[in-house]
Amino acid sequence: xxxxxxxxxxxxxxxxxxxxxxxxxxxxxxxxxxxxxxxxxxxxxxxxxxxxxxxxxxxxxxxxxxxxxxxxxxxxxxxxxxxxxxxxxxxxxxxxxxxxxxxxxxxxxxxxxxxxxxxxxxxxxxxxxxxxxxxxxxxxxxxxxxxxxxxxxxxxxxxxxxxxxxxxxxxxxxxxxxxxxxxxxxxxxxxxxxxxxxxxxxxxxxxxxxxxxxxxxxxxxxxxxxxxxxxxxxxxxxxxxxxxxxxxxxxxxxxxxxxxxxxxxxxxxxxxxxxxxxxxxxxxxxxxxxxxxxxxxxxxxxxxxxxxxxxxxxxxxxxxxxxxxxxxxxxxxxxxxxxxxxxxxxxxxxxxxxxxxxxxxxxxxxxxxx
Amino acid sequence: xxxxxxxxxxxxxxxxxxxxxxxxxxxxxxxxxxxxxxxxxxxxxxxxxxxxxxxxxxxxxxxxxxxxxxxxxxxxxxxxxxxxxxxxxxxxxxxxxxxxxxxxxxxxxxxxxxxxxxxxxxxxxxxxxxxxxxxxxxxxxxxxxxxxxxxxxxxxxxxxxxxxxxxxxxxxxxxxxxxxxxxxxxxxxxxxxxxxxxxxxxxxxxxxxxxxxxxxxxxxxxxxxxxxxxxxxxxxxxxxxxxxxxxxxxxxxxxxxxxxxxxxxxxxxxxxxxxxxxxxxxxxxxxxxxxxx
Lengths: 370, 293
Ligand SMILES: Cc1ncc(C[n+]2csc(CCOP(=O)(O)OP(=O)(O)O)c2C)c(N)n1
Ligand code: SF4
Ligand SMILES: [Mg+2]
Hints:
The structure holds two protein chains of two kinds.
Chain A: E1 2-6, H1 7-18, E2 22-25, H2 32-43, E3 50-52, H3 57-68, E4 74-78, H4 80-85, H5 87-95, E5 101-106, H6 120-123, E6 131-134, H7 138-153, E7 161-166, E8 174-178, E9 202-203, H8 209-241, E10 248-251, E11 258-262, H9 264-279, E12 284-289, E13 291-293, E14 304-309, H10 319-328, E15 333-336, H11 346-354, E16 361-363
Parallel strand pairs in A: 2-3, 2-4, 4-5, 5-7, 6-7, 11-12, 11-14, 14-15, 15-16
Antiparallel strand pairs in A: 1-8, 6-13, 10-12
Helix pairs in contact in A: 1-2, 1-7, 3-5, 7-8, 9-11
Chain B: H1 21-33, E1 37-41, H2 45-49, E2 62-64, H3 70-83, E3 89-95, H4 96-101, H5 104-112, E4 117-123, H6 158-163, E5 169-174, H7 178-189, E6 194-200, H8 204-207, H9 214-223, E7 230-233, E8 236-239, H10 241-248, H11 253-257, H12 268-289
Parallel strand pairs in B: 1-2, 1-3, 3-4, 4-6, 5-6
Antiparallel strand pairs in B: 5-7, 7-8
Helix pairs in contact in B: 1-7, 3-5
Bound molecules: thiamine diphosphate, iron/sulfur cluster and magnesium ion (MG).
């Protein structure tokens, strides 16, 4: 059904369609609208779900863990400080192999208080064993949330999935949204290690190095298998509903001499910049990185690469730029831009391309001449 | 004791210290709860007692969770079981640190939300798992590894924190009175909504007394009025048998103190404050039971 929605409302609509048995909720700007909308669905009887209004994000994830291990589908949403507050439980959910789905509305971290978009919050959880996808449109927020349940619950994966959308620049903007009748796209959740009082097991007791190490390898193996599962699920989604997704969204890349790599809404903004550059005769393309974990293989060899990082690892560099340097074997021009919601327009992005210095790093508008 | 079932849900291969009373309590808790029960255990001695993977000493599912998260995890689990139409007992079994300190927020939230679960705090009055540091529940004057000169402040009154949430059922218990504990767990699990039981669980290495004195230590805690056994059902207080006598004619506090290394060389001032505390507690509960508060 064609309608219009904000990014937040799109996530909530997808959750309604996925019918989780338990939703744990704690408000934080700019995510709050998601848990408010779900509360309304539950109150109005549009979603038959146990809604747990927990007292903190640490408890939100703990509640999802407790619920998920019974085999019930679970969902929560958070942002920024909320995500960091639950950090311990974020690791726990992955280590316990629970297919929890969480929307994270990307927002900067204090101090000072800043509620605008930045990706540092999600990247601070990158080593937890969660799959992470970043979306660029309202429609994609909906589609990715639906697919997240199917990917997480796949027996070859059984890892939690975080769906990331930019604070305000996506969570609060309105675009067209085509909601689908999901039919049997999402089969009932089946957790092979669900708690069964007829077959009592110990979950997560003290574990020696040999077994512990093996469990960690199992997580990595599933992360690797997840690549194929993601492709399958995205393929099936495309067949059923007609919208196609992949590890990246490539725009005019085939013959490009220079490729802009960005994530979230900046990745969409880059497409406009590419059109401008093409008009000037610059053979540019853009690659919007969707999946951050598992990190995809990118074909960037032989071209100039401009990476826009809406994040920073202090004392090291842009997280995406460095990931691409090590994974794709290229030395990109690393642009740090958009922190704390800084406005970055397609004109700015076109400038990054025109002024690129491969191998260098620049802080847009702050220290342009490093 | 004839009413207590023979079935064992915690077998004799635990890694508990000799004379550990909290593992004894767990045994009775599970006998009362029966097989359709799940334990949620945060970091504490019970994380160790249950055995090392792939072995387990437990015959009910045990879900281990992070230190602060027992009540929240149990809360999610309870909602999920109810969503599945199952009545399974969800029992959080946590230490005093995981309850009164780091886990108090999650406990408060779960109680306030009316979660259908039983939260049991077994109180050995310190952080046992990490080698006996003070907790908020460590009593005045007790030496721990982080209060080598004796704890200068009083034991946190966890029960009054819980009481402020008005749960339909809350009780205290003590490992030295297993039948009383058994009955309380049975009763708690027959009531819907949030239930809370606070068990005093003497700990030989932590309190520094010989292992064979574990039962005696619990009895002395009750007889001296240091620990009072009661139940509060829908707000109505009942003082239980042994504490009735103790409240009228308490045994001398020294009987309890003198056998424990953690209370060695207490100053007369501290002893005095301890007596005053007991007196205040006894009077408060006596007034409440008489309906005079
Ligand atoms: C967040 C966090 N901080 C600290 C610890 C270390 N830790 C594990 S158990 C424990 C003490 C537990 O004390 P208590 O709850 O009283 O249970 P007991 O060990 O006495 O049975 C501590 C400090 C931890 N596991 N997690
Ligand atoms: S330290 Fe105390 S509570 Fe912990 S296992 Fe030993 S005796 Fe039991
Ligand atoms: Mg303790």
